[in-house]
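Support request, please re-run this one:
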Amino acid sequence: MRPVVRLHMFLLSLLLAPLAAMHAVEPKTGESKRIDLGDGVALEVVYLPPGEFLMGSTPEEKKWATGIEGGAQPGTDRESFEGEKPRLTRVKHGVWMGRTEVSVGQFKRFAEESKYVTDAEKPGGKTQVFDPEWDGYRLTTKVAHPWKSMVGKSWRDPHWGFQNRDSFPVVCVSYNDMNAFCKWLTDREHKAGRLSEGLEYRLPTEAEWEYGCRGGSKESLYFWWGNDLERGEGRLNISAIDFLPGRKKTWPLGKAPWSDGFAFVSPVDHYGEKGRNGFGLADTCGGVWEFVIDHFDPKGGHEEIYYENAAKRTVSRPVCRGGNYFDVPGNARSAVRLGIQSPTYSDSRDGFRVCLGRVVTKQ
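Re-run finished. Output below.
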């Protein structure tokens, strides 16, 4: 082949490269990839295509949640946070979402490499943990809650009363800490040449999270598997028939009528295929509360990211979703959402999962 022909073909390939990239084959729903965090630690993400779903809950669902089986406390504002009725919501762009909540081992890798100090570990820092002296709510006399704020506790030692394991979801980390983990991962992947410009690891938006939690369902279901609590056996970790460590009592109030094997946290993806929804995401209901990137709007979640101040793009009251190991069944539904008091607050019931998607500007 003559040199001039080779040159023309080379130039043509340069012109066609962007066009080819635009028409690249979209990943398959549920396709997964492993992100190397170094030192033998990896994080798995799965692909969620663009799509739509019904955000929120029906009056019938709210009634069940506060009824005898759901066990949620009636007469509060909590169910109103889900909106008056389900509304069609779109996720316009495909994203890759963490198969599981970020684990202790993955967060440890971040802290070791970046030398990051969490809000709970800073001077004057504290976190909400289980009170080992708690022996009951005493609902007819003086209500006593099983959680207290403590200094000297953090994601390294959430005060379980038993050994913290690398396979547990990381807890006692704040919204600030979660964003720091995501920024570290984004910068790490950019430097390694594995991440395109315009993409970032971040917390999911509220719409992305609920879309992911529902697993591709087009119906307004209580849980990702349907409306029947009994079908949740072997799928999630919530308040169930499990003795508290060293005691002969379970969590009080409403609970699932089976043993899920753990009074506190279970390892991420412990329930395997049965615990994964239609997208292949694990532990989206129960486990630990998962933070999203949005500011909390008590009227309901939004299709696009929601800020406290749109002009300044601020978030001072983050949103958490999905319930936790201590929660009654009615508080571990796909539509449940709560506002967290501040970006520095942390709790041994709260964690997060990452999302790889288009850059979303935040403070």
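Helices lie at 3-22, 59-65, 104-114, 175-191, 206-214. The CA atoms of residues 319 and 339 lie 5 Å apart.
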